[in-house]
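Thread: "does anyone have the structure for this chain?"

Original post by V.I.:
We have the sequence but no experimental structure in hand. Need at least a predicted one for the grant figures.
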Amino acid sequence: MSALVETYRGGVTIQECDAFGHLNIAYYVERFADAAHELLQRTAPGGRWRTRSIATRYLTELRAGDPIAIASGVIALDAASLTLGHVASNGIGGEPTTLAEQVLTLDAPDGEVWAETRARLEPMLAPWAHERFAPVSLPAGEGSLQTGLNRVKPWEADASGSLSLFGFIERFSTANLVNMNAAGLTSTYMRAEKRGFATFETRLELLSERPEIGDTIAIQSGILELGNSSVKILHTMRLQRGRRVARFYQGGVHFDLEARRSAPLPQALREKAREQLIRA
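Reply from O.Q.:
Generated one for you, tokens below.
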């Protein structure tokens, strides 16, 4: 088996950080997309790959000025797809800050081409020393709160002209600001109480063809579960004409911006948030 190899090296700039002072989740996934491209250009050059899902676990914060290094490898192969594992650290050789598993398929796959590609990749399988992402059970329904309505811009598209992974996550991240504001985590409350929101896990699932430049897309959000300090959320993206294109699971915590750790949800906020629970 092969070891994970370095696929990205860079750092966090202040304009990539959100209102809570840490790297916005869209910029994590943008870097994992870069890492995947780099790895696949080395191991399976010439193929056009399409992401089907990416699960990300945020272990510790990355903030402005922090370096980032990513090591990646092919950690699983099945009959039609491959899974890449990514480990981000705060600097070269540091402890992991973020873990991701990304499932990809060949665009317009041909059985013979995939068989050849799989045979080439099998000797390159890398060991994965981290806990795998367990399946998350999501309801068939979706949230009732509209949290996004806008158009895909040219700068948000990837090389294929479709909405990039960054474009998906950036919209869902913004949708959650609207979602949590409606649940009581308003900007006035956050500034007065020095509270915010910190994400600890996300799951992006792409369901059909991606939105293209000029498409109008809408997002509906709702709350799946409330814990002592945690909130689990489901966002659904549709094209304006109704076709569902993506779902995004997001787990996060009510966050003390001074202590930089989770804080219990106040009862008033908890009662308000219950109004947005998605019924099974």
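V.I.: this helps a lot. The chain has five helices and eleven strands.
O.Q.: and The CA atoms of residues 15 and 106 lie 34 Å apart.
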